[in-house]
Amino acid sequence: MRYVLQRLAFYLFTAWAAITINFFVPRLVPGDPVQALIAKNQGQIDTRSMHSLYVLFGLDKKQGLWDQYTAYLAQLSHGDLGVSFANFPTPVLDILKSSLPWTVGLAFCALLISFTTGTLLGVLMGWWRGSRLDSVLPVTTFISSIPPFWVGALMIAVLVAVGSSFPIGQGYDPGLVPGWDGAFIGSVVQHSLLPAAMLVVTSMSGWILSMRNMMVTVGSEDYITVAHAKGLRERRVMFSYAARNALLPNVSGFALAFGQIVGATFLVEIVFSYPGIGYQTMQAVGATDFPLLQGIFLVTTMFVLVANLLADVAYLFLDPRTRKEG
Asked: Gene3D superfamilies under this entry (predicted)?
């Protein structure tokens, strides 16, 4: 219990630090976003309402920095991430609600497939080292060394053509109504095949290599020799004794990899015009939409922190030593 409380306190502090950085970054960037918004929408926004816009965006110059900071924290406590500049007056939260599920779904599915497949291959390669399975490792290592966006461009050039079953652009076929029906789900899966495949093939070698090395190390431990001497089946020794102990570093790396694969997903979405957070980030950067960029940064950071916290809890159950007091 003490271990969980310590980790929870650490992540709460990290979340506060991320929120604080998120508050100060737009205020340190040169320029006046309200003036830019008025110039961009000439004739549509009355300059007499300028003060109201400063108040709306939390940039009221009549308030001190501390008052703006406390107002920002109060705003976040109500789930209000502000109003988008480029999509004024659409709230940032509404934009994120429409694009975040695409990014999280794509990144989580790709990470889960990559982790499961890579870990299983690493277990088999480490247990039967020197076999033909080892020839897979150089191939996956070579692919992972190639930049993901280049792999995506290559996939588009080779696999996408007229009548291809690998469409790009959007998350589903035009004309379909989003819902839990077979046609919509099938279209979503079809549109996500190439982006997910790109993320899987460029991230799988790390799981294979780390798991293989840990299996080789664990395989020489005394308890593995004792398990063999007791006459246990080889499959049980491999999975219940060797793989279970070798898995611990990969579990810790899973949460860290979630943050990395989310970053890679941003590039993937831009390459494939996938309607997720990465595509919205590109649009926000081009339009200097600071509230939207703030919202994307904050939500992405929170997701990564939650993933790390869950990995720590999983580590607690897998490794009994973390449950020992003192």
From this structure: MetI-like
User: Does one domain contain both 132 and 269?
Assistant: yes
Query: CB within 8 A of 63, min separation 6: which ones?
Result: 71
The pLDDT value given to residue 326: 45
Residue 83 lies in a domain: no
Taking the CA of residue 222 as centre, how many other CA atoms within 13 Å lie in the half-sphere pointing to its CB? 0
228-249, pLDDT tens digit by residue?
888 888 888 888 888 888 887 7
Same domain, 136 and 227: yes
Answer yes or no: are the C-beta atoms of 323 and 3 closer than 8 Å. Answer: yes
**How many CB atoms lie under 10 A from the CB of residue 300?**
22
With a CB cutoff of 8 Å and minimum separation 6, the contacts of 159 are 166, 194
pLDDT digits (tens, 9 = 90+) for 198-218: 888 878 888 888 888 888 888
In terms of domains, do 195 and 282 share one?
yes
Whether residue 58 is found in the same domain as residue 123: no
Same domain, 123 and 211: yes
Rounded Cα–Cα distance for residues 65 and 172 (Å): 44
Looking at the structure, tell me whether residues 175 and 228 fall in a common domain.
Answer: yes
On the question of a cis peptide bond just before residue 167, with omega within 30 degrees of 0, the verdict is no
Q: What pLDDT score does 289 carry? A: 75
* pLDDT tens readout for residues 163-196: 566 776 777 777 777 777 777 888 888 778 888 8
Q: Which residues pair with 83 in a beta bridge?
A: 91
Whether residues 141 and 269 fall in one domain: yes
Do 117 and 230 have their domain in common?
A: yes
Q: Look at the chain and report how many structural domains it folds into.
A: 2
Q: How far apart are CA 297 and CA 82, in angstroms?
A: 13
